[in-house]
Amino acid sequence: MGVDFKIENHVAYITLNRPEAMNSLDPESTIQLKEIWGQVRGDDDIRVAVLTGTGEKSFCTGTDMKKTPPPSECMASIWLREGQPIVPHMKTWKPIICAINGYAVGGGLEMALACDLRIASSNAKFGLTEVKVASLAGLNGTQCLPRAIPQAVAMKMLLTGEMIDAQEALRVGLVSDVVEPQGLMDLAGKYATRIAGNAPLSVKAAKQAAVMGLDMPLDHGIAFSHLLWGALRDTEDRKEGFQAFSEKRAPEWKGR
Description:
The chain has about 260 residues and is α/β, with parallel strands linked by helices. The chain is about 45% helix and about 15% strand. It has 10 helices and 10 strands.
């Protein structure tokens, strides 16, 4: 199987498993990912997802050019029927952690940019190299990279196709943590467990407020956050949170 999937303690683990091809995506893997992200969105038992790759050499290098045939129909037909592959299917208010274990290039980096929290192994490298093969980072790279890191750094990467290493990615804010390869999944699991232990509706609301607020004027974003706060105020989980705090016990979240 090109993609492994498991659920443990409210955490979905999605692992790209084609190390012989740098965990690049062939057509079968792309279909699997679409189905998996649909399950992540629809399964209330899942509170957070971790996306990573097999091995220590590569997270994902995008499309497997050897296994992906050229399209048999025009771009308009594909676009209007299916839209973009993969990244739109990752849209969910559940947090996604990307554990980047090596090369994150092309579509691999674009998938990472669609995640909420990015952590990397010390040997990771990042790049949008499409200009070197007369293509374009068309999933989300040209739009999300300049929003994730300083524009000057993003433009250098987009226009030259040059890669940056893990320490530079940490310096410019592309990732939040850099650890040795053997500790990457331990850190991902630690963050996922912390997130899954929080009230699921509050976590979703926090992500929604932060993500949507970026496209709003500040006062509109604050007003939107206040509306979400009000929506959470009367939930069963909020009452449980206050009661558990007063009783000095762990809360039991219901997601309602």
